[in-house]
Known about the structure:
18 strands, disordered C terminus, single chain, 16% strand
Amino acid sequence: MEIIRSNFKSNLQKVYQAIEEADFFAIDGEFSGISDGPSVTALTNGFDTPEERYQKLKKHSMDFLLFQFGLCTFKYDYTDSKYVMKSFNFYVFPKPFSRSSPDVKFVCQSSSIDFLASQGFDFNKVFRNGIPYLNQEEERQLREQYDEKRSQANGAGSLAYVSPNASKCPVTIPEDQKKFIDQVVEKIEDLLQSEENKNLDLEPCTGLVVLHSFTCSFYGKKERYIVISKVDEEERKKREQQKHAKEQEELNDAVGFSRVIHAIANSGKLVIGHNMLLDVMHTVHQFYSPLPAVTLDLFTVCCLLMMKCCASLLPHLQDIINNTSLAELEKRVKETPFSPPKVESAEGFPSYDTASEQLHEAGYDAYITGLCFISMANYLGSFLSPPKIHVSARSKLIEPFFNKLFLMRVMDIPYLNLEGPDLQPKRDHVLHVTFPKEWKTSDLYQLFSAFGNIQISWIDDTSAFVSLSQPEQVPIAVNTSKYAESYRIQTYADYVGKKQDEKQNKRKWTEDGWKEVERKRLSTQGLSHPFSATSRVGKRNLSPGPGEDRVSGEISDSELEQTDSCAESLSEGRKKAKKLKRMKKELSPAGVCGILLKPQGCVLLNCSRNL
């Protein structure tokens, strides 16, 4: 079923019903592009860690738009031993709801647009008729705007309609409008005195009049007409309720397609996808929370909150499934040892013909994904004693495969684990190689020709991973580059160790960078060097005598609190405060830490563990 903005509201209950009845769902998405920089090969390196793959996709793929979302629900009919399917194809687009709504910016990749166009994709259904949506933060802000308008109306008296630009102070009336305003006031006073008339039609004007105990209506396209109606308290409350209901309807319209995602999340049912990491990332990014602020750990939490369960069976059937592209996978599961499932479309829903291969329509791809899952799940049932022909989506037999997102083209980490630690392969047979930009794959094969079969995974134009078939050959390969000028070879472990050192050095520079900035600031004010052992506060003693102020020794909690409050005035104050708290734990009683307190902030003078 094709769903666009014009028929979304009328079909929403059908979507909700399908989600409520289903045993599991299959999803798929179509995007405006895949990568804004690196090639797909570089974006999906064979030796990525789950963290690296997530970070690369987050950096290079999230500015594209998921503009077609396929949802296919499956419910098993035990009477006829068949699945009943309902397929939905949603076209989504972030149409601004109002002038204050988010004006989303996104990018397109020409190759992706050209490919979808060649598949008959109708872009008008996206850009002209796409269903709007809001993420959770945008929805919260919109609700607050409505609440604020409502509270302003209630606080201003019995107002049915309030101008968004209404001033809370007396308005100065221009001289050329005083006559008109006086006439309006006179007509309103006559309306108040009249027992027969309840409405007053004013002449066309551009101003907005806010009145107590009246409602104001506007009509007309080019000219604005104002109709003032006199109402009693009961009528006023009725109109307020109608206005509130209209606002709620407008809010629901703005939230749009996100309501479908909320329904899927709240169902707690199994969600199936094919190579679905990018689909899930875009779903979280567009309809839940923008990913730039989400780490991999938070991303896994978001996935579990939104979808509860995802399944990845492919890595565990790789011995009998060689090609995981969706079209080839669908053909493979029709052959032995698999059995094609019996699946029919529900009444009133269109059916798909797999012979026509409507690939890259999100609804059809979701449908094929569901068929493949059913076949593979039922195949696992053949190993039971006695064998089971039908394996339910709730079966404990497939629970080990829940919450594992397939990592495409990663050689030794088949999935990203959403509920536990990721796999940690040894990779002692992997080498990291750097070389001139002019080198090609053939040059790498030539370089390692003496080491038998190898696998090459490009990182960028000047580096790649090379895996050897025999780990004991790694030291020999590394030694060959000792005296080479054009290339360098190192073990995977050395490569990872250097990357970690670089991160630590970068973090240390960030933490210490504020010192140089503060030193320059103080020097411009004629103060002593803030990091020298001597300063204006004089000599520091380890143990203050009677009557002396304690200026050294172990830092007290109150000092730290004072330091923290001072540090907040500095651009990097928070980092400094955290560093001081760590120092409190590390300092021995013989340590010393001098603090110079100033109105502008606080400056660490000297800190030494042993004096």
